[in-house]
Amino acid sequence: MSNNKTQNKIAQPVMPKKVYDFCGKRRMIVITTAVVIVAAILGLLIRGVNVAIEFKGGTVITYDYSGEMDTSKAESVVKEITGTSVSVRTGENIESNGTQITVSFTSEDGLTADRQTEVTDALQEAFPDSSIVLSESNDVSPTTGKEFFLKCIVAVIFAAVLIIIYIALRFRKIGGWAAGLCSVLALIHDLVVAFASSVIFGFEFNSNMVAVILTILGYSINNTIVIYDRIRENRQLMPKASMNEVINLGCSQSLRRSVRTSITTIGAMLIVTVVVLISGYDSLLSFSVPLLFGLLSGLYSSLFVAPVTWSWWIEKRAAKAEKSKDKK
């Protein structure tokens, strides 16, 4: 008798305080997701993508200087000469313990002696008290950047295929292929949001953005698989329940865990962003801000986009199978 009681206890799923009807809000979730993606794409089209010099090719010139340096003014001075987008960053010279300014801009023709002299003279004229001295100048070939970018795209596609195969095999008893495709749809949603936030805030598409994409890939899919595991366990423990009931229970069980985990990570990124703003290391903002939005999107997509679209897919497939039976 004691063994039977133990088995009955084990066979019951852990019930949360409240089971939310995630699948019942399917239309609202689909509309919200579509609005977010459309808004992100419109933002990309309106703002345009500012590709960094390491992917597009161009020129990097470094100067030593003293005193104060207005990077916005320096950007406008160089932009008047080059006619292209210009990035100006300040930093420290480790060898001399002095300060440096790095000017980078896209250029198809490369850096000529006349162009270098013109830029240097313009900066010295704009900042006569800063003792600007040329330190070094380099041309950046776009070939290496394009190869790196293509490798990143291949890596992302390869990762997406592996995710689909892994989820399809792991959750094959409850429609694994559909679950895998829906999880990739959720990932695409997260990447679009992160990329759009980067463009809207005026950041370049650089190596930081590539790091953001790879980070979100790992973080978001981890959240989704945890929820899928709950759904699979509940399917075994509740064989007579509908798939929507099982999905609602799995998402409700994972809700608190997902929110707490995400708040911890998002809070850490928020602190990094604030510290970067205060300290003036603006180059890190192109990593922390898109990642912040990507993590928020990952929380939403893991709980709503992936499971709910999976539920919709299963219903459509069941309805199609029912129609084919009726015809026979």
Structure notes:
- The chain has 328 residues and is α+β, with helices and mostly antiparallel strands.
- Helices cover 69% and strands 10% of the residues.
- It is built from ten helices and four strands, in the order αααβαββαβααααα.
- The protein has helices at 2-10, 26-47, 53-56, 71-82, 113-126, 142-170, 176-200, 207-237, 243-279, 285-327, and strands spanning 58-65, 86-93, 98-106, 133-140.
- Strands 2-3-1-4 form a four-stranded antiparallel β-sheet.
- Helix 2 (26-47) crosses helix 10, helix 6 runs antiparallel to helix 7 (176-200) and helix 7 packs antiparallel against helix 10.
- The chain is elongated and about 85 Å long.
- Mean pLDDT is 81; it is low at 1-10.
Q: Provide a count of the helices.
A: 10
Mean pLDDT score, rounded? Answer: 81
Q: How would a textbook summarize the main sheet?
A: 4 strands, antiparallel
Derived from helix and strand composition plus strand pairing, the structural class reads alpha+beta
Measured distance between first and last alpha carbons: 48 Å
Strand content bin: 5-15%
Spatial shape: elongated
N-to-C SSE string, H for helix and E for strand: HHHEHEEHEHHHHH
The total count of strands amounts to 4
The helicity comes to 55-70%
Write a brief structural summary.
The chain is an alpha+beta fold and 328 residues long.
Any descriptors?
single chain, 328 residues, alpha+beta, 4-stranded antiparallel sheet, 10 helices, 10% strand, elongated
Question: Any chance you could write out the topology, listing elements then pairs?
Answer:
Blueprint: H1 2-10, H2 26-47, H3 53-56, E1 58-65, H4 71-82, E2 86-93, E3 98-106, H5 113-126, E4 133-140, H6 142-170, H7 176-200, H8 207-237, H9 243-279, H10 285-327
Antiparallel strand pairs: 1-3, 1-4, 2-3
Helix pairs in contact: 2-7, 2-10, 4-5, 6-7, 6-8, 7-8, 7-10, 8-9, 8-10, 9-10
